[in-house]
Amino acid sequence: MMSDTLQDIYDYIDRNADEAIADLQELVRQPSISAQNVGLRDCAELVQRQMLRDGLDAQLHELDGGPPVIFGHMTTDTSAKTMLCYSHYDVQPPEPIEAWSHGGPWSGAVVDNVLYGRGATDNKSGVLAFNKAAKAFLIVRGRLPVNLKFIIEGEEEIGSIHLGPWVECNKALLEADGMHCLDGSVDTATLLPDVDLGLKSVLFVELVARGAKSDVHSLNFPLLPSPAWDLVRALGTIMDDQRRILIEDWYEGLYELEDEDEEQLRAKAARVDLDALRREWGIDRFALGRDGIDAIRARTYEPTANIQGLVAGYTGPGMKTIVPNEARAKLDFRLIPNIDPAKAVERLRRHLSKHGFGHIEVIARESAEPPYKISVKEDMSQAVIAAAHRVWGEAPIVNGVSAEGTILRHVWIPCVLTGFANPGANLHAPDENIRIDNYIRGIKYAAAIMEEFGRR
């Protein structure tokens, strides 16, 4: 049951749901694909217009080499606390386009109380949840419950590669007592928000093996280098069949779980339905037969080495008798706290060289965020947990670490990631969507977090 102290805010949000839906449709209909540099400035300017229309401060800050950041700062005399609201307006590529229904990736169509389109969940509904919650306080009460800073960037989906230098030059602008992000979905089984108290850094790496100056007839295979086979063998040295990463010193200084971490794992294991997660993914069992608290511990705290994609030679219809002159693999390594991204790249290079694959080029994407972990006792943690309880009527699912770290590299702020999207929201997949009731509840969640943090 929702708290009466915010009922006037909730009522305003409900009365103005059509406006919130229309603004989300407008935002989804504007493509903003950072990986392809499509529509980013147009989207940034749209976000700014929407914020100004809602009575919020919104300034465009130019990045050297990247799309603009939208920044806003609004003060109040009701709280000494300042909260930084982080979100992003860029989205993943929509391909395969033919797999989309309801008018395609930019339709913003509402069908059976579900809004479809790339960014509907990740993260345009999160952008607007912050904005509409702040607007509700300003209209209903004439003031905010906490000092707010907004930062909305346009390269989160490619690792925030141009954000770091801007943050370095604007540390004072970003200083705050807490920071949070509304980017993700509720727990599949309980339908309660996940609250993540840390970040698994994502290190993106591309491995490139090269051979002859061009593809050569496969009759000549005995005389030619084989980049495809080199790459396959190199990949086989990185991880064993038990999912353990074999790169020397990879686990050095690894974060050791504390009592509160184990308690969070036990509490989550007692409440979540892992069968529901298996059904959502369409699998019969988790990797290595993991289950229960072991599965939850692995997903939360285990470093990973994932192959995103492999490309070599001809992949069209029929056959083509060639020895490809190049083979590429894209990987992402999830790094838990105390694994330094820069050191990880060098360890990977040394590993490949040691195993005879020093000729394979390692291209590391810049600006990998450092992993981090905060305590459940932090005011930011407690505010988000309390807000979720108020809006959903039950305590949320609290996790140790999950998937914004570029800012934290330069300005340390206790940071929490949470979300409100429905299971089956199809983040990063065709037919990405957000249920309208989840979206409106997400705006109320943002409002409750603002009030909870402002009074701590």
Observed structural traits:
eight-stranded mixed β-sheet; Alpha-Beta Plaits; 456 residues; Aminopeptidase; globular; 20% strand; alpha+beta; 2 domains
Protein model, in words:
With 456 residues, this protein is of the alpha+beta class. The protein has two domains: 4-199 and 372-454, Zn peptidases (Aminopeptidase), CATH 3.40.630; 201-254 and 303-364, Alpha-Beta Plaits (2-Layer Sandwich), CATH 3.30.70. The protein is 35% helix and 20% strand. The strands form five sheets. An eight-stranded mixed beta sheet has the order 1-2-6-3-7-18-8-17. A four-stranded antiparallel beta sheet has the order 12-14-10-15. Strands 4-5-19 form a three-stranded antiparallel beta sheet. Helix 4 (124-141) packs across helix 14 (436-454). The longest helix is centred in the last third of the chain and has 19 residues, at 436-454. It is globular and about 80 Å long.
Number of helices, where a helix is a run of at least 4 consecutive DSSP H or I residues:
14
**Per CATH, what is the topology of the largest domain?**
Aminopeptidase
In angstroms, what separates the terminal alpha carbons?
Answer: 22 Å
Instruction: Provide the domain count.
Output: 2
Q: Output the CATH homologous superfamily of the largest domain.
A: Zn peptidases
Order of strands across the main sheet: 1-2-6-3-7-18-8-17
Overall morphology? globular
Helix fraction, binned, reads: 25-40%
Classification by helices and strands: alpha+beta
Quaternary state reads: single chain
Strand content: 15-25%
Count of extended strands: 19
